[in-house]
Design brief:
- It is built from six helices and eight strands.
- The protein is α/β, with parallel strands linked by helices.
- The protein has three domains: about 110 residues, HUPs (Rossmann fold); about 110 residues, no CATH class; about 40 residues, no CATH class.
- Strands 4, 5, 6, 7 and 8 form a five-stranded antiparallel sheet that branches. It has a three-stranded parallel sheet with strand order 1-2-3, covered by helices on one side.
- The longest helix is centred in the N-terminal third of the chain and has 19 residues.
- It is globular.
Length: about 300
């Protein structure tokens, strides 16, 4: 069982249906640098930059503004050098904490997310960000892209279903292990409420990729004739290799069962399997239906 599961890093490239200026629709109004700027050999490929896709369990604050502005400065600097830039920001509208916030506000999860999405888009506009797109994980285009990727990996045999018994922090959206306990057997207060779970989940065969990943990094210190490194800066490359060589990777949990945030109201967060058919993962080797799970929880 992995030590963590929750927020995922955004992928590189353009999301289906995305276009320059969509979302906050600010890019056409903002300077991108002189068209005559010279592009160095190190900058001939598209530069992709994303902020965190924030959970919509509350309104934006100063910390969010700082991160967005720093990312915007990087995007503008790259454009000023004549580089093609794709700058993304957006919202993660899936998760137990989002669902709980919706229930606490007395709204349906999707309506709750829609209301806050308008606030966050207004926030991006007020900061005058030059983002090329604003993605919401509840959007059909995002669901279609994710489903396509997962279906391809599933067909290639990269997923399997197994039961998990262990501990989970809803606050941090992460699974915990015995090594996360303190000497007295409790968990640090930073994890918030920790529950013991028994549930069926899907997993990605991450440990199977450990050796070839080490070999690939070692055999590809540079990725092009211009000398760009596969992982930059070089000391981060050494850190990654050190971790891979001295730790056994654990398979990655990629699903959670349908969540009930309150015994009085059973709400399902947007994009959560199995209620959303576009988010279901089916085993091509069986005739069984999509993943359905039951879970029991004990509070610590």
């Amino acid at each position: 069982m992995p030590a963590t599961a929750g927020r995922r890093p955004a992928t590189t490239g353009t999301l289906p249906g995305s276009a320059r200026g969509r979302g906050a629709d600010l890019s056409p109004q903002l300077p991108t640098g002189p068209s005559s700027a010279k592009v160095s050999p190190r900058m001939r490929k598209r530069f992709y930059l994303t902020t965190a896709i924030d959970y919509v369990n509350g309104e934006p604050h100063l910390g969010h503004a700082y991160e967005k502005i720093v990312a915007d400065v990087i995007a503008r600097a790259r454009r000023s050098l004549g580089e093609e830039v794709f700058f993304l920001t957006g919202l993660d509208e899936h998760g137990q904490k989002v669902q709980q916030a919706a229930v606490d506000s007395g709204k349906k999860p999707q309506a709750y997310c829609d209301d806050l999405a308008a606030v966050w888009k207004g926030f991006a506009k007020k900061l005058n960000l030059s983002n090329d797109d604003f993605v919401r994980t509840s959007e059909p285009r995002h669901q279609k892209a994710v489903q396509g990727i997962l279906s391809k990996l599933n067909a290639a045999g990269h997923f399997y279903k197994a039961q998990y018994r262990g501990f989970y922090s809803a606050k941090e959206e992460t699974f915990l292990t015995e090594k996360d306990r303190r000497a007295d057997g409790t968990f640090d207060s930073s994890y918030g409420q920790v529950v013991e779970l028994v549930e069926d989940n899907y997993y990605f065969h991450l440990r199977e990729h450990q050796q070839w990943l080490i070999e690939h990094i070692e055999s590809h210190p540079k990725i092009d004739p211009q000398g760009r490194e596969f992982i930059e800066p070089s000391y981060r490359r050494n850190e990654v290799l050190g971790f891979l060589k001295n730790n056994a990777l654990e398979d990655l949990c990629i699903s959670r069962p349908t969540i009930s945030a309150s015994p009085r109201r059973r709400e399902t967060p947007p994009c959560s399997p199995p209620s959303n058919p576009k988010s279901e993962i089916r085993n091509p080797k069986s005739n069984s239906g999509p993943l359905t799970c039951t879970s029991s929880a004990r509070t610590f």
